[in-house]
Amino acid sequence: MATAPLLTPVLASLATLAIAVALDLALAEPPARVHPVALFGSVVGRFDRSWSRPRLVGVAVAVGLPIGVAAFAGGIVAAASFALPAFSALPVLVAGTILFTTVSLRMLLATTAEVVELTETDPDAARESVRALAGRDATDLSPADLRSAAVESAAENLADGFVAPLGGFALGATVGLAVGGSEVALPLAAGVAAAVWVKAVNTLDSMLGYRSKPVGWASARLDDAVMFLPARVTAGCLSVAAGSIEALRWAASWAGKPGSPNSGWPMATAAAALDVRLEKPGHYVLNPDASPPSVVDAERAVRLVGVSGGVAVALAAGWLLATRWLPAPAGVIG
Q1: Rg of the Cα trace of the chain?
Q2: Which end of the chain is more exposed for a tag (fewer CB within 10 A), N or C?
Q3: What would the pLDDT profile of 257-311 be if each residue is shown by its tens digit?
């Protein structure tokens, strides 16, 4: 796995991060017919049926599918380092492209902005569009309720669809850097594998993790564990982006209102930072003393989520830069 001396593992990891974010901002999403997440979802769909021993099958699915797809993605990056040894940037390009397929910020912001605009001009169309963000029944939701659903989902999906895979990449690359020393391909492969694993776990939960689907019990529990830290990091990013650390204190008092142990943190922080009431009728209310989000409030929410995504990228990059001071593994010089 020979590489050019100037392409250090840390620089390669940072370049991978930059490529993924740049592709997301430029392209938003790959076409659905070739999107790896959609293809993975088609595999997951085969297990979405009744089983004689659903929990046993569910455990096998929750363990096996994410590991399998993560190993495949990491293997592609590792293989790229052998394909053209003289072209040392190839693993970085491959890793950045794969990482791009696990993150989604531009599409999240565009979809949220569309729903917000439609609540003022065409509420029926907004009820249809909000389904891309939230799984709730929007049939009887008022325009204010639709904006609340959009803001809540934007904050929650920032954690699931952007912060979590970026965090997975940063942590996986750190492990690769600690083990591989001056080796470039190992941290890239480990980082990509970790990001893909996180995305696979989240996809399993979104498709199978419902009370009505016993086969999804293990996927839901695994997602709860995996998202514990990203949800709280996302809350921190939202508070930093809003310039209000106080929002975290208020969020702590509301974060337990939703049924999920994690989703309440980014949603409650957004409610506090924007000083709006966010509500899922019949389920929970966040910041109950405030008013529901107006169109202007919801537009502010879109900007807040976008800036928070930038904070998350800076945090991941800072983490990777800090790995320069990791002690070299035994037997590794330089």
Answers
A1: 20
A2: C
A3: 998 899 999 999 999 999 999 999 989 999 999 999 999 999 999 999 999 999 9
Sign of CA dihedral 66, 101, 234, 111: negative
* pTM, to two decimals: 0.92
Distance CA 306, CA 154 (A): 10
> Which residue from 251, 220, 224 is spatially nearest to 235, judged by alpha carbons?
251
What CA–CA distance (Å, rounded) separates 92 from 84? 12
SS3 (DSSP) at 88: coil
Rounded to an integer, what distance in angstroms lies between the CA atom of residue 131 and that of residue 70?
A: 29
In angstroms, the CA 97 to CA 16 distance is 8
* Concatenated DSSP letters of 228-297: HHHHHHHHHHHHHHHT-THHHHHHHHHTTSSSSTTTHHHHHHHHHHHT--EEETTTEEESTTSPPP-HHH
Using the 8-state DSSP alphabet, how is residue 210 labeled?
S
